Automatic annotation (TrEMBL):
NCBIfam families: pheS. This is Phenylalanine--tRNA ligase alpha subunit. Keywords: Aminoacyl-tRNA synthetase, ATP-binding, Cytoplasm, Ligase, Magnesium, Metal-binding, Nucleotide-binding, Protein biosynthesis. It catalyses: tRNA(Phe) + L-phenylalanine + ATP = L-phenylalanyl-tRNA(Phe) + AMP + diphosphate + H(+). Its main location: cytoplasm. It comes from the Bacteria. Residues 107-349 form the Aminoacyl-transfer RNA synthetases class-II family profile domain. Mg(2+) binds at residue 257. It is an enzyme of class 6 (ligase). GO terms for molecular function: phenylalanine-tRNA ligase activity.
Length: 355
């Protein structure tokens, strides 16, 4: 009797869930359970032995049944506790604030640039990111053997086998949109062309995909003086400073003649960049007078029309204006970064509100 008690009370205590407990109950008290079988044996016993055994066996049966019931209640309580813990809900909490999305700095700066040039009478022109090599190079006076083709670290698209046409490229700059705008709209013309460009280059200041904005103004008597004024006005408005000091450095681009790289006066005092003062110069764009061959490629007569063009990096402008140190972070989609550097969806640059 003691052996049975120890065996089943032990099994009940260590049953870890209701299914295991039910197995213990069946093994002890079920129709073919060990205790039930013993009770059935009572009938075959001599009366005096039965009288001695029956009460103890009954007591054992009741004890095991009570232990099973108690264990079952305990397991159910534990299961309920566990469920309450898992499904816990603090109904007194305020509703979860809707996470507002933010405007990416690249989008914001593109809007700012567009807004400023729109006020100067420029329309936005667009072109494809997968460009043919005539628009990306030839039409811009970059001949097949021109070193700029290598310098641009061009991504070439695959051609199917047996197709010997020159491969398309991921455009290496926004300048091909100049050609498309000239061909599509003719002269006179004032456009800016913001968009994605691609070069096989990757480090802290280079990303294989980045953004440029191209500017193009064509009219009968446009000169370098107009270019200089336009860039000054743009940079003052963009950086929100009363004056800028620009340095035009003679340079070379195949699509402009003469060509100039433009530097802006700045200081790095105390590790922060200040524009318009100081003794340092920061290169911010390339520009020049549109080459006659480029006008011709765009279907515009260079004996009648002339114009200026410029190209600058939008990502670079964003880094300078908003103090963003690493270009690569722009494209990592880190939510913490986006929330920190992003702009409110309603902070749209406007003529009245400024950029
Ligand atoms: N396309 C040049 C580049 O990606 C930038 C540039 C320079 C554009 C001079 C122009 C220009 O329109 O006149 O490096």
């Amino acid at each position: 009797m003691d052996e049975l008690r120890d065996k089943y009370l032990g099994a009940v205590a260590s049953a870890s869930d209701e299914a295991a407990l039910e197995e213990v109950r069946l093994a002890a008290l079920g129709k073919k359970g060990e205790i039930a079988l013993r009770m059935r044996e009572l009938g075959t016993m001599p009366p005096d032995q039965r009288m001695a055994t029956a009460p103890a066996l009954n007591a054992l049966r009741d004890e095991v049944a009570a232990a099973v019931a108690a264990r079952k209640a305990a397991l159910q309580d534990a299961a309920l506790d566990e469920r309450l813990r898992a499904e816990w809900l603090d109904v007194s909490l305020p509703p979860r604030p809707r996470r507002a999305g933010t405007i990416h700095p690249i989008t914001q700066v593109t809007d700012e640039v567009t807004q400023i040039f729109a006020a100067l009478g420029y329309a936005v022109a667009e072109g494809p990111q997968v460009e043919d090599d005539w628009h990306n190079f030839d039409a811009l006076n970059i001949a097949p053997e021109h070193p700029a083709r290598q310098e641009h670290d061009t991504f070439y698209m695959a051609r199917s086998e047996g197709d010997n046409r020159p491969p398309h490229v991921l455009r290496t700059h926004t300048s091909p949109v100049q050609i498309r705008a000239m061909m599509g709209q003719g002269a006179p013309l004032r456009v800016i062309c913001p968009g994605r460009v691609f070069r096989a280059d990757y480090d802290q200041t280079h990303s294989p995909m980045f953004h440029q904005v191209e500017g193009l103004a064509i009219d009968r008597a446009i000169t370098m003086a107009n270019l200089k004024w336009t860039l000054e006005e743009f940079l003052k408005a963009f950086f929100e400073v009363p004056t800028v000091d620009l340095r035009f450095r003679a340079s070379h681009f195949p699509f402009t003649e003469p060509s100039a790289e433009v530097d802006i006066r700045c200081s790095w005092e105390g590790g922060t960049l200040k524009l318009g003062e100081g003794d340092s110069w920061l290169e911010i764009l390339g520009s020049g007078m549109v080459h006659p061959k480029v006008l011709t490629a765009g279907g515009i007569d260079p004996t009648e029309w002339q114009g200026f063009a410029f190209g600058m990096g939008i990502d670079r402008l964003a880094m300078l204006k908003y103090g963003i140190p690493d270009l690569r972070a722009f494209f990592e989609s880190d939510l913490r970064w986006l929330r920190h550097y992003g702009f409110g969806a309603l902070e749209v640059p406007t003529l009245a509100g400024g950029v």
